[in-house]
């Protein structure tokens, strides 16, 4: 196979509005109003059913004549009124996929409430937001800015956990934090609009994924402590628990006991896979949470020569970046498909955890490959139990390397 070159023609992320839809459509009682042309509506209706919440998008029929003729705001207002006539609708997010300076919507021309429903404009223009993970941040920060009860009395032992995570992880986090004395845990993005209200009363925010910069900034400007990192692997798990204890002023003896206990559990899981995890792995996703996974793989003894993500470098992910580069991983931000393909050709890894396009490319070379989103983001990854789940899957795939080599002819068309 010829070298792919470095044309950088294929930036990898879904439409930014998709990330915002995942957040907004999963809120109970919400009905999205999309202010976009028919092309955007067609594609985003598909993902709203397939990936988001199996719900439909409501939209005025916006074509060039409405957008250029100045009637768009009236059409949107009529659509909002129609949605609000349903008494079960309590929240109407109005998503605008254009910048305000072109075909965008003036927020002051929309009602803040109509009938039983709150109305909120969320701008998700692809011209300004590069990736769908960052659009999640835009959606969450818009909700927090509008609904967060920052002016109400603070709950001293309440914590916001910020990051779209597997449900079992949320339960595990809640159970362990309860052990150290945390009295209330609010996981965002959440399905209840009141979660965003109560988040404003929390004392601290643990940011699991590094792309939530806008949301973290809102909490920080309101005087809330920001906790970086996440409980992935032995070292980071113990450290994460200790940081939360310090941020909330919890009993340091109890915090250390729980941190040491969870750290030891994770170490035992890692040790249990030591005989099965050998070789190299490339991680190349577009979810924005790839670097903590790389930390886990490195701690488990695997070589990760290359990792890439669609998001930009952030201060929230700086710690992971420093550790990974110190351990020899080349980290690529705002990545392109061609760069990922070149990394596969250069390193010839034993496993690729990547996007669908990269997975197909790797399989044509006889290299085992799996889709990051469906295999990593859709399973628990935190604490010892999460490590066991992820590492067990990866060990099994690496052990089947020979099978993929024999399957190569299936993926390569005959001449």
Task: Record the strand order, biggest sheet.
Answer: 11-10-9-12-13
Number of H- or I-type helical stretches: 17
Question: How many strands in all?
Answer: 13
Q: What is the CATH level 1 assignment of the largest domain?
A: Alpha Beta
- Low-confidence regions: none
Distance between the termini: 13 Å
State the major sheet. Answer: 5 strands, parallel
Question: What is the mean predicted local confidence, pLDDT?
Answer: 88
Can you put this structure into words, describing what you see?
The protein folds into 3 domains: 16-129, 3-Layer(aba) Sandwich (Rossmann fold), CATH 3.40.50.1980; 158-269, 3-Layer(aba) Sandwich (Rossmann fold); 273-411, Rossmann fold. The mean pLDDT is 88. The protein has 17 helices and 13 strands. It has a 5-stranded parallel β-sheet with strand order 11-10-9-12-13, sandwiched between helices. The protein has helices spanning 16-24, 38-52, 64-69, 72-84, 132-147, 167-179, 193-199, 213-221, 234-248, 252-272, 290-299, 318-326, 337-347, 356-364, 372-377, 383-399, 401-411, and strands at 33-35, 91-96, 113-114, 117-123, 158-162, 184-188, 204-207, 225-227, 280-284, 303-308, 330-332, 351-354, 369-371.
């Amino acid at each position: 196979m010829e070298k792919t070159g470095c044309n950088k023609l294929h930036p990898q992320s879904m439409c930014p509005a998709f990330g915002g839809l995942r957040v907004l459509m999963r809120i109970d009682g919400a009905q999205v109003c999309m202010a976009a042309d028919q092309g955007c509506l067609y594609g985003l209706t598909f993902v709203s059913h397939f990936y988001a919440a199996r719900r439909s998008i409501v939209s005025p029929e916006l074509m060039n004549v409405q957008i250029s003729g100045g009637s768009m705001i009236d059409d949107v207002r009529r659509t909002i009124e129609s949605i609000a006539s349903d008494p079960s609708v309590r929240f109407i997010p109005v998503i605008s996929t254009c910048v305000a300076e072109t075909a965008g919507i003036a927020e002051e021309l929309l009602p803040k409430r109509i009938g039983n429903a709150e109305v909120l404009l969320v701008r998700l223009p692809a011209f300004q937001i590069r990736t769908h993970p960052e659009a999640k941040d835009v959606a969450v920060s818009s909700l927090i800015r509008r609904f967060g009860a920052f002016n109400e009395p603070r709950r001293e032992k309440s914590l916001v956990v910020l990051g779209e995570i597997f449900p079992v992880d949320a339960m595990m986090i809640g159970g362990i934090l309860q052990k150290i004395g945390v009295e209330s845990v609010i996981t965002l993005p959440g399905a209840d609009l009141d979660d965003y209200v109560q988040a404003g009363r929390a004392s601290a925010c643990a940011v699991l994924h590094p792309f939530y910069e806008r949301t973290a900034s809102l909490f920080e400007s309101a005087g809330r402590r920001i906790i970086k990192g996440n409980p992935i692997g032995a070292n980071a798990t113990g450290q994460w628990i200790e940081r939360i204890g310090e941020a909330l002023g919890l009993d340091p003896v109890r915090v250390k006991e729980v941190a040491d206990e969870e750290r030891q559990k994770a170490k035992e899981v890692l040790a249990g896979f030591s005989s099965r995890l050998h070789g190299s792995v490339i991680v190349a996703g577009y979810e924005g949470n790839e670097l903590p996974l790389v930390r886990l793989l490195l701690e488990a003894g695997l070589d990760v020569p290359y990792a890439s993500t669609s998001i930009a470098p952030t201060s929230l992910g700086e710690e992971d970046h420093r550790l990974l580069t110190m351990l020899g991983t080349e980290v690529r931000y705002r990545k392109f498909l061609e760069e990922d393909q070149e990394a596969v050709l250069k390193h010839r890894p034993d496993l690729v955890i990547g996007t669908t396009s990269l997975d197909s490319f790797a399989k044509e070379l006889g290299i085992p490959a799996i889709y990051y989103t469906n295999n990593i983001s859709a399973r628990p990854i935190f604490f010892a139990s999460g490590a066991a789940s992820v590492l067990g899957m990866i060990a099994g795939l690496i052990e089947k390397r020979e099978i993929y080599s024999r399957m190569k002819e299936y993926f390569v068309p005959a001449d």
